Amino acid sequence: MRIVTPSEVATQTQNKYLGVLVAAKFARFVNEFPRDRSVDFEEKLTTRAFDELVRGRLTYKLVRRRRQEG
Predict the structure, then answer these.
(1) N or C terminus: fewer CB in 10 A for the chain?
(2) In whole angstroms, what is the distance from residue 54 CA to residue 67 CA?
(3) CA 11 to centroid of chain Cα atoms
């Protein structure tokens, strides 16, 4: 298992906190797909998401929140 450091995450995103949010969102997205449950040694989705982020395979777009009127 490869260990991803915060500095590696920060090089692909604006900061390490944004990197964690992007990786978590991607892991939730991947979790929705059906997987082969017979494989016991599959790495965790968050580990895979961080690996994809650090390798530069994930693209993301920041969307500004709309203000709620009321």
Answers:
(1) C
(2) 32
(3) 14
Cα 22 to chain centroid distance, Å, stands at 4
Please tell me the pTM assigned to this model: 0.77
Helix (H, G, I), strand (E, B) or coil at 50: helix
Length of the chain: 70
d(CA 46, CA 41): 14
Q: Is 56 left (phi over 0), alpha (psi -120 to 50) or beta?
A: left
Residue with tokens 């964690």: 20
